[in-house]
Amino acid sequence: MAGNIQFPSGLWTEDGFRTLTAPLQGAFFTLCLRPELGALGAMPLFLGRIAIATAGADKVSVLDNLRCLALAGWIVLDEGEEELFVPRFMEFNGVEKNPNRLRRAIAESESIESPIVRTAVADVLYRLSRIDADRAAERLCKVESGQRPKDRPNIADETRHAVYVRYGWACAYCSHQFVQVPTGAPEDEAAGIWLELDHIRPYSLGGDDTAANLRAACSTCNRRRGVDDLDLWADKTGGA
Q1: CA distances from 218 to 79, 83, 92 (A)
Q2: Which residues touch 112 (CB under 8 Å, ≥6 apart)?
Q3: pLDDT tens, 184-212?
Q4: What span, in angstroms and rounded, lies between the C-alpha atoms of 71 and 65?
């Protein structure tokens, strides 16, 4: 599918893309040309293969670039499940205008393991306003919603409040400030985001629900971060 990529000329004038450094722009283009992305734009985290295709790169630098692209919103990255997704990939390769490619993309969505990537893919499929895409998105959401074990208790309100207080009711990654609320999670309706709890060491990798293992993160940054066992995101963004 790499030969079908058509990057829009307007991409260069988009604020979000212009603010990327030249190495990150190059990393994004290199990623989009990977044949493993298929028609959908999702693939396993093949750091070695990407590094080979990038002059002077190794697995560490490739992963660092992918993390930065995820934080900037250009990809969705789940290191725990070792999968990634390029949300605009179907736009770039013309899937939305080609029924055969769209059917292939929908079929590829069934093999995604990461609940984070599944949610992102579902969001893209819903925007296509097609019956078959909607049905695929609904299946993805049903699988994602069943990821939390039934015997895993909800995080206590006291713990949630303590974590929000510790971070000053702001996102640890982008520093978006929220207004303090007496109970529950604060929401910024104008921005369309809310404050959540983010596990420093992911629950799926042995982390617990104690306050020491939690940080405050806005809903956008929490989705983009995915699962990162090495916990380098806060280091790169100035968080705790």
Answers
A1: 19, 22, 28
A2: 42, 83, 85, 118, 121, 140
A3: 788 888 888 888 888 877 665 567 888 99
A4: 10
Which sign, positive or negative, has the C-alpha torsion 202, 206, 47, 107?
A: negative
* N residues, the chain: 240
Strand partners for 187: 194
d(CA 127, CA 90): 12
Q: Which two tokens stand for residue 96?
A: 């939305």
User: Tokens 């109970």 — which residue?
Assistant: 183
In which region does residue 178 sit, left (phi positive, over 0), alpha (psi from -120 to 50) or beta (all else)?
Answer: beta
Q: What is the CATH number of the domain that holds 218?
A: 1.10.30
Instruction: Quote the domain boundaries for residue 79.
Output: 2-145
User: Which residues, in sequence order, are CB contacts of 209 under 8 Å at separation 6+?
Assistant: 153, 155, 159, 199, 203
Decide which of 145, 178, 199 is a domain's last residue: 145
**What would the pLDDT profile of 50-84 be if each residue is shown by its tens digit?**
888 777 788 888 888 999 999 888 999 998 888 99
Record the pTM. 0.61
